[in-house]
Structure formats: C-alpha cells, structure tokens
Amino acid sequence: MSAPVTQHEPAVRIVKRDSIPTWKAWCIRLLAVVLALLLSGLFIFAVTHLNPVAVYQGMFEGAFGSERNTWVTIRDAMMLLCVGVGLAPAFKMRFWNIGAEGQILVGGILTAGLMIHLGYTFSTPILLCIMALASIAAGALWGLIPAIFKARWGTNETLFTLMMNYVAIQLTSYCVALWENPAGSNTVGIINMQTRAGWFPKILGQDCMLNVILVMTLTVGMFLYLKYTKQGYEIAVVGESANTARYAGIKLSRVYIRTMAISGAICGLAGFISVAGAGHTISVDTAGGRGFTAIIVAWLAKFNTFVMILIAFLLAFLEKGAIEIASQFNLNNDASNIITGIILFCIIGSEFFINYKLVFHRRKEAAGK
Amino acid sequence: MSMTQFVSLFQAAIVFGTVILYGAMGEILTEKSGNLNLGVPGIMYLGGIAGLAASFFYELNNPAPNPAVCLLLSFLAAFAAAALGGLLFSFLTITLRANQNVTGLAITIFGGGVANFFGGSLNTLAGGVGQISVAATSAVYRAKIPGLSSLAIGDFPLGNLLFGYGFMAYLAIAVAIVLWYFLTRTRAGLNLRSVGENPATADAAGINVTRYQYLATCIGAGISGLGGLYYTMDYIKGTWGNDGTIESLGWLALALVIFSVWRPLNTIWGSYLFGALTWLYFYIPNLTRKDMELFKMLPYLVTIAVLILISTRKKRENQPPAHLGLSYFREER
Amino acid sequence: MRGVTKTFGSVIANDRIDLDIRQGEILSLLGENGSGKTTLMNMLSGIYFPDSGEITVRGQPVTIRSPKDAFDLGIGMIHQHFKLVDVLTASENIVLGLKEKGRLNLREVSARVREICGKYGFSIDPDKKIYDMSVSEKQTVEIVKVLYRGADILILDEPTAVLTPQETDRLFDVLRNMRKDGKSIVIITHKLHEVMAISDRVAVLRKGVFVGEVSTSETDPQKLTDMMVGHAVTLNINRPLVEPRPLRLEVKDLTVLTPEGVRALDQVSFQAFGGEILGVAGISGSGQKELLEAIAGLQTAQPGSHVIYHPPTPDEAIAGAHVPVAPDGEELLGKNPRQIHRIGVSMAFVPEDRLGMGLVGSMGMADNMMLKTYRSGRGPLLNRKPPRALAEKVKQELDVLTPSINTPVRRLSGGNVQKVLVGREIAQEPSVLMTAYAVRGLDINTSYTIYNLLTEEKKKGVAVIFVGEDLDVLLELCDRILVLCAGHVNGIVDGRTATKEEVGLMMTNLRKEAAGV
C-alpha cells in the first residue's frame, strides 16, 4: 500500500467576506473602472499609436461635447436604464430573464403598428396612451410565456427567454416587410415624418425630455416597489430561498408569473419609448442588443435601480464616445464594444474581491505524523 | 420541388448547418462541465476574425502562399483565439466565481466588438467591404474531392450532394463522433459529465473539478471558434461582412445544443435540419418576403418546443447537466 | 487512533480519543447524536484533519489529508448522504475518478462489480441508473464503490437509518460475509439492537469523550445505554405546573411519506395541551421534522390523517389576535401554511444550516420579523413599523447581539440567529408553539434564555411542542415526553417521573409499550 501523498494546505485560501464597508466596495469598483480604462488605453495605443488621453478626451467630447450629443447620450442611457429597471425584479427573484431583447421588440412592433395605422385617427396624446398600453401588454405577454412554463414544469428560463428573443426578431423582420416604406427599401422608414403623429412631444424644448421623465419615474417607482411593497418583499424572499418562501406561505408560481409580467411589461414599454420617443421607426436594431447589455447593468447594480443610472450612463458614454473617436481618428464604431467589453470584464471580476478575500498563510508542518 | 431545388436546399442546409454544428459541439463540451457559456456568438466571432486575419496577413506578405501554411495558420489562429475567449470566461467564472450568464453576455459583446473592429480595419486595409482577398486560403477550405464530387447517377448528382463541400464539413462530423465517443466511452468523459452533474461528488471522488472545467470550456470554445472560421473561409468565401450574421448563428448554435438534448450525435442531423428550416423559404414558391421572415422563426420555435417537451416529460437523460450555470466551490469548513 | 482531538471553534468534538480497529471484526461505534462518532470517523476517511493525535494503519503512522489518501490506505467510508451522480449507472459511479490504466471498459467494470456482489451476497444491476434505484440499492452502490477501490477497512455511517428491517437484515448478512473475508468494518450507530445483532465489539462515545469499549458478548443493552447516556445531569430548569391544561391539538393517525415513498411518520397519534411543554425525543431523523412540518402545513399527509386544533376559549389570555375557528375543533390538514399560522399555530424550526428556511439571510432582523405577517394591513405597501418595533423588542428582551436591526441576519452568530427565530414565533402570540432544536449549538446561558421563554409561554397557556436532542434537557423542561422511533410513537412518558435510561431505551426501539396518553 503506498504511503499517502503529503499535501500542504494551499498558500492562498479564498474566504467569503462577511461584509465590506460600502465605501470600500465602491473603491474596488472604481479601481476596476480605472484599470479597465488603462487597459483600453493600452489597446488603443497598440492599435492606433494615438495618445490614449487624447482619445478619451475625444470620447468625452463625443458624448457630452455639445448639447445635442449630450441629449443623445442621455436618451441612450435612458433606454438602457429602462430595460435594466425592467429586469431588476426578475433578477432579484433569481429568474434569468435573458429575453428583454424580445420583450422590447414586441413592444416596439405594436407601437410602430399603431403609429402607422392609427396615426390619422387619434390625436397624439390619446395615441400615445394606446401605444403605451399595447406595448406593455405585448411585453408582459412575452415575459409571461416562459414564466408560466417555469412555474408549471420548471422549464429552464434562461434558455426559453433566449429563444423568445429570436422569435421576436423574426416577428420584427416580418413586420418590417409588412410595413415597408418605401417599397423595396426593406425598412419602415421614419413613421409619420410629416405629421409627427404618435411622436413624443417636445417638453421644455427637448425631444427626449419625456423619455427622461418616463424612465426616471419608472426607476424611482421600481426602487420603491422592490423596497416598500409586499410584492417586492415576496420577490426578495423568493430570490433568497425558495424553501423559506414556502415556509412563509408564499406561492412561488404566482410570484414567478406576476413578476415576469411586470418585468416584460417594462421592457415592452422600453420598446414603446424607443419607437415613439427616439427612433420613430421599427427594425431588428430597435432593441440593438440593449436587452443583453441591460442584463449586465441590472446585475452589476445588484438590482438597485439608482446604481443602474450610473452604470447605464457609463455604458452610454462609452458607446457615444467611441463612435465619436471612430470618426475623429478614423477607427470604426465597434471599438466601443471592445472598450465596453474590457470595462465589463474588469467590473465583473472586481465583484470577486468584494465578496471574497484572499487569506495568505504560511504552510503548516504536517501535524499528524 | 424539382430535383435541382432539392439538391440546392440540401447543400445549403449542410453548409449552413456546419457553421452551427461547430458552435453547438463546443458549447456541449462546455456545458457538460456545468458551465453555461452564453458567449458562443462572441467566441465564434473571435475564431472567424482570427482565422481571417492570420491568412490575410500571410497572403499579403507572401506572393505565392503555400496552401498548407495557409490552412495551418488560419486554423490554429482561429482555434487559439476562440480558446483564449474561453479562458477569459473560465477565469472570470471559475476562478473569480462571476455569474456565468453575465460573463457570457459580456464575452459576446467583446467578441463581436473585436471581430468587427478588426474586420472593419481589414476591409479598410483591403480597400473596401468585400475587397479582402484570402483567395489561396479560401481555396484550400473550399477544395472538393476531385473525382468524387462530380459523380452522378443518371441525373442525380450524388457526388455533389455528398462530396461537394470543403473539408471542414466532414471534419465537423468527425468531431461530433469523437466528442460522442469521448463523452460516453472514456474515463475523462465520464469524469467530465460527473463534474457538470454533481461537482461535489466528483470532487469527493478525487476528480479535479477546476481543471476539468477549465479544459472543457477552453477546448469547447476552440471548437465553437471553428464555426466562425468555417463561416468566413467557406460560407462567405474568405471575406468579412459587418452584418452581425455570426452573432445570430451563435445564438442558433445555442438553440441547437438544447434541440440535440446535449448529445453530439444529435447535433449532426439537428444542424442540417436547422439549416434546411432556415433556407426552406427560399424553395417554396410564391412566398412573399414577409412569409420568409416567419419561416426563419422555425428553428427557434422548434427549439422552444423541445425545451418544453423535455421539461414536461422529465426524462432524466434529457435534462440539462444538473449543475449547469452554477459555480462550484468547496464550502469552507 | 491515539489521542485524537478535533475542535470546531470552541466546541470540542473529539477529546483525546483512543480507538483500535482490528482486522476481521465488526466494531460498533455507539453514541447519542452529537457525541462525535461521525467526526471521529471523518478523520479516518480524510474529510477532516485532526488537531492532534496520531493514526496508525497496519503499524505505520500515517497522515490522511484527503479522501484519496484514505482510499490509498484501504479505508473507505459510506456516508449518510450518498455521493452519487444520478444520471450515471452504478458501474459508471463506481469507476468515477479512478485513474486506472487502459481505456474505459464498462463491460469489464460491470463484470467486476457482479463478481464483488457475488462474493459478498449483494444484488445489484451494474447498468441501472442511480435515479431508478431505491435507497438501499444506492447504499449498495456506495459499498461496492468502496470495495472496488480495494478498501479493507469500511466505515458505515448510520447505514440502517434509511433501510427497512428486511433491507437491514440483508445488509447485515453482507457485512458478516465481509468479516469472513478479513475486512474490518466500523458501524456508526445508536441503535442498540443492531449493535447486539451484528458487532463483535462496541466502542462508546459520549459528548466527544471515549467512554469505553466492550465485547458484545459481555454486555447487554441496559449496560450500553448507561454508557451511552451517562448519568442524569441536574440542570435546574424551572418547571412550574400550570392549571388548567385544556386540549389544544389532537393528532390522529398521522402518516407522512418521504419523497422516496418511505413512511417518515406512521400512524402517529398524540394530544398536546395548553399550559404544558410536550417534549419530542428521538434519534435524529425519526420523523421529528415531518411531524412539525405536517402540522404547520408544509408537508402533505396521507389520507386518514387528522390534526384537530381546539381554539382557546375567549376568556383565555392567548385567545386574541387569531382567526377564529370552530370552537369544537378544526382540521388543520389541507390548510396552507399561512392559514394555519393565522389560526395561531407557530413553528420555529432550526434547521441544520439555521438559515435554511426560517429566515432570509440577506435581510435584517426587522425585515425577517415580518416574514409571515407582511401581508397584514391594507394596501400594497409594507408596514415596517410593527416589525421594526418587534425587532427592537426581541433584540432587547432576548439580548440579540447585532449592530442594528437592519444588519443582515446572515452575519449574526448562531445563537443570535436562533433568538431571532424563536423570538419572532413567540411574538406572534401563538396558541400552539412548535420549536425544533431551538438550542442547537447554543451556549449554556443562551439555552437557558430559550428555556425560560418557552416556560413563560407555557404559563400563558400556550401548548408548546419542543423537539429536542438532549435528554437531560427534555427530562427537566418538559411536562410530558413523546418518544419517536422510526416514525412511530414509542410511548409518551411523564417528564417528572421518567428516567433517562427509560427514554433512551424507548428511543432505540427496545421497549415498545404504548404508554397511555
């Protein structure tokens, strides 16, 4: 019989932290962003030999350099935020709603359809209400379907919602073909260009002030919903432990279905805002991957909707900034995705150092001889 | 449907299917270790661009490129770049215990960014979209077996049907069979499956869970990356299009993993079926473009149906690996 | 094993234990729950590493740092919780992780498995999937797995806890065959009749200390019980007699099945009265959890079972605040947990991991206080005032050590978590209060706080059901003690007159008299 191999305890041990002061956690996150900017700077320099500082300056100007740019950045951040807010309750419940992309699109489809067909029937305020309600219903339905199957049969929601995205994308393509304008362009074009029927009205002279108002209302509302309502409390309990929820007499299936309806509804509303308040058209790019990016936003913010504002702005800034430097320095737009990726990796990785600490210790002598 | 149409649909299905076949096989290997990598599209992007870039620069600097070098260079570059993407995913999710869904999506964003950035740059270097020329490399990938591919029985172009593809179409089938053999017939495959099902048990049995997860995820990503390579080299004939096709193919590959209920042999016919479903509209007469779009929904609808079916039937063999999407670490005592 | 000691935090699980295991014998390791049997054996099988002491195998001092080390030394342990992969076959599980030469040939493996089975008298289909197997088949797979790896020292942790009597007999036959083959076998158990039936020698542990070892032929159950439970310790728990004691809960023929279809509770009948503490004694896993959960509405009972609740009369102190029910008794089975809770039946179950189901770890005390009551009040909003006030009250009265009532309870120490849990249930002013393992892992002072709380409730006229582990406590705290054994009521005794030996024997199934209610 061979003698056992003597193993030493590893020199580094990973220990879960009990708690970490909030300021320290934010320092770690800040460090991660700084590290990411350094890495991105290196990348930019390696590829273009441009001065990264100048590039970052260019990005800043692109995002906030002019009033127009600033508003575009705000508009995009609001969109991302809106979807993130929609995802927050689902994720807090540990329900992996990867289907925001599809939920946005079905909301957008209905909005566009109503805008086209009822543009001459109703006045804009009424039309806006109808469109909003319709998009909410559509998004809720899109979120409900996987939730019902999850509640009834435990169908894997990550994969189900993912597939629902592509059904919605094809549905969008179908509608684009249906409403094609002008014929043969394979786009819907700007809807109601002349009449502006169903467009968000200007408020305080700003095109997308209504977007801001709507999304900020939702953000505050969701924060309150999760923190101060009975339903929000149920979501938190279910997310923590299905067993405890059972013990407390909470019906899991009902919470799943209700929460996903809310989550889908807000994502659907995001589709409405995107069509009626920003693009005034519908295409498969209406969601533009925000359904996926928002997942990261919601997750990184730990479902705190106010933190989401920060992250949404960071990502919107990166995107706008990168587009600006792309034209300025003759790079292409996709550089923004690289930088976004690097920043996301750093922030995702930094969570480890918030949740765990590394304990270094000297190797112990074999004690049991 | 006429004979010519059938042949052409058949071929389209196989070529299309091969792309997602690679993606799905790599993801099956990854998921068998319990890692759900939603970064498949990004990984395929990485494979595609790396392979293209490698051969582009090689051909740019060598007026008379050696076909073997072309092949080797692009193949290795694609595999390595994709595996690096897998390594990044592994490091974040296994070592740093980050959430797998979030990390996977970030990989998709990042991979797409890298690929389209460099793809765009290559296009610029080459003088415009569609101007990239890796003729020599693409020719290697698209080479058919001379005699066999022109065989015909009467009017029926059997040779073309069976042998009319580049070597990677056949390699994919071989990989699927090897993967099946590995997972079901080898010790390492058995150990890997146990890691994805019940890492605590695997750990107790003396299996190095972390090593298995790292290896499966990186090699799996490498295989997925070959899908991107096949797409750029064979499917679109050695060029780069910034149209996001690879991304949608990547998601389709994820769908195929579910459709095949995590079995490599099922992915072979599954991928061709997906290919056929995707292109079917092209061969049905009198379809408007709207209807075509609805047709393209089919693979996803079928996948949803399969997903629902396996969850309602509850047959144990058909479930996803039990520990899929969760990170494992030994609890501290 | 010489002078082996293991501590967890401040708790000494094993204190300088010497133990010999001889070749070709079956050794029983006997002791009550928490006496350190499993911990001791875990050090042999590489799960834990001893703080001090030495282990010698075949004359060689060895270091066992991992299960693999143990396997290399020929030591294999079959744990209570099987470590098997459900979707794999028996053979596949058996070869899992082995680094044998050559390619995997499952047919060969199956043949060898059959060979091992034949040799010792098991019956098992090597190609059957684990999820299709019964508990006893799974156990067989675990044993074969250990034998396949060439173990000649086998440790079985409570192997019969999950088996039917017939299956137990079969297992014992197998173990005897192994002994004949020269293997050494250690059975961890607390069932005396099994000890007498199977083992050659018995080693007894009590509260982490080695009490002694005897040959089975030279002892009898009574002597073993004395060794196992020790002398009664006086705890001086205040136990007033409360009058009157109205009937509150009537359990009739309660039968509950485990998911595997085994009877966790079999025709359990008893009555609980207001103004008394009814203790529930029993080896862990005898059906305590199922009993409480069935009453609380968390488990489905079999048809024919009844749990009748008799509400307090309006003039009783505890009559307020609850949903009124029929005065001549109302069936609780079939109601959902929330309804039962609102009727006034509270349960404070402290699971092994403490946070598992009673509390939400990421929430503070305040938010945890409203886990069952958050729905009260009109409108969609939470009313945090009452739970906050309650949290402050519990914090003060029970001396909960927490930075604030908003600190996640996950960060509190075990004792404080339990206080929060019990405090919350008491605060509901229940008329029936059930607690399980309320003092598990607590220090003496905190334990007394909990005892006093329960006694206070009793004085108010509440029917308290106290599931406990420590016989000394049960004997001094409870008015009556119900003894559960393998899902049966083995008797109900008067807490004031019963002796520790008597209850101990009933727990281990030796005396079967249906003492009157």
Automatic annotation (TrEMBL), chain A:
Keyword terms of this UniProt record: Cell membrane, Membrane, Transmembrane, Transmembrane helix
Transmembrane regions listed in the UniProt entry: 26-50, 70-91, 103-120, 126-147, 209-226, 255-276, 296-318, 338-356
Topology of this chain in the membrane: Multi-pass membrane protein
Database matches in Pfam families: BPD_transp_2 (PF02653)
Localization per Swiss-Prot or TrEMBL: Cell membrane
PANTHER family according to UniProt: ABC TRANSPORTER, PERMEASE PROTEIN, GUANOSINE ABC TRANSPORTER PERMEASE PROTEIN NUPP
Protein name: ABC transporter permease
Automatic annotation (TrEMBL), chain C:
UniProt keyword annotations, A-Z: ATP-binding, Nucleotide-binding
InterPro entries reported in the protein's UniProt record: AAA+_ATPase, ABC_carbohydrate_import_ATPase, ABC_transporter-like_ATP-bd, P-loop_NTPase
Transmembrane segments: none
Record flagged with keyword Transferase: no
Domain ABC transporter: 1-232, 249-511
Record GO terms (molecular function): ATP binding
SMART domains documented for this protein: AAA
Name of protein: ABC transporter ATP-binding protein
Protein source organism: Oscillibacter valericigenes
